[in-house]
């Protein structure tokens, strides 16, 4: 990982894998086994918590702390994964009832992740130079290119996950609405 000389792109790939692949799959498994996590009825609260943790842990000072303190790096990964697990579990639970809440949480979270990715891509200078201070061999141009690659990874992978989930939730919602409607059949001859 980063504290072992890895790149920001590697770090982002680990987060995306944990938060956008492992967490939704784990949430699906929990739901199939009828395990209900605390807060499963609050997808917007789960989204806000997840976004707050993303913002806090990706402040340059916090990322530098995590890079230099293995316990902080472990806390970062664990807290982000648990927040993502709660988010996906709550989004799935809401999709079975008030689907609009699930869709709103997916939309807000996906958009903010896109904004973070865009910030990494469009920043004119490396945002995490202090985090790489102990890795003096990496030139600033290399740090910027790595940051931009990490941002592009976020811009591609994160929205795909949330858009796919939104399509599934919407399709299920429309299917329920369609089944609930009592459509009059064709007029029968008398």
Short description:
The chain has 190 residues and is mainly alpha-helical. It has helices at 8-32, 43-57, 60-68, 70-95, 99-122, 140-180.
Oligomer designation? single chain
Helix content range: over 70%
Would you count the extended β strands for me? Answer: 0
| Low confidence ranges | none
Structural class: mainly alpha
Order of helix and strand elements from N to C terminus: HHHHHH
Query: What number of domains?
Result: 1
Indicate the proportion of strand residues. under 5%
Shape annotation: elongated
Q: Helical stretch count? A: 6
How large, in whole angstroms, is the Cα Rg?
A: 20 Å
Pfam families: Caa3_CtaG (PF09678)
Membrane topology: Multi-pass membrane protein
Keywords: Cell membrane, Membrane, Transmembrane, Transmembrane helix
Protein name: Putative membrane protein
What labels would you give this structure?
190 residues; elongated; transmembrane helix; transmembrane
């Amino acid at each position: 990982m980063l504290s072992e000389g890895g790149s920001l792109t590697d770090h982002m790939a680990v987060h995306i894998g944990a938060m956008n692949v492992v967490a939704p799959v784990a949430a699906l498994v929990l739901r199939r086994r009828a395990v209900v996590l605390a807060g499963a009825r609050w997808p917007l609260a789960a989204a806000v918590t997840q976004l707050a943790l993303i913002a806090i842990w990706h402040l340059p000072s916090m990322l530098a702390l995590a890079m230099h303190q293995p316990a902080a790096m472990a806390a970062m990964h664990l807290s982000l994964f648990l927040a993502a697990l709660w988010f996906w579990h709550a989004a799935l639970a809401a999709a079975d009832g008030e689907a609009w809440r699930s869709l709103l949480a997916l939309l807000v979270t996906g958009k903010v992740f896109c904004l973070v990715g865009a910030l990494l891509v469009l920043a004119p200078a490396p945002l995490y130079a202090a985090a790489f201070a102990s890795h003096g061999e990496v030139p600033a141009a290399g740090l910027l290119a790595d940051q931009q690659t990490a941002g592009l990874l976020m811009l591609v992978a994160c929205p795909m996950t949330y858009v796919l989930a939104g399509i599934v939730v919407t399709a299920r919602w429309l299917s329920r609405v369609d089944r609930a409607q009592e459509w009059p059949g064709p007029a029968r001859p008398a």
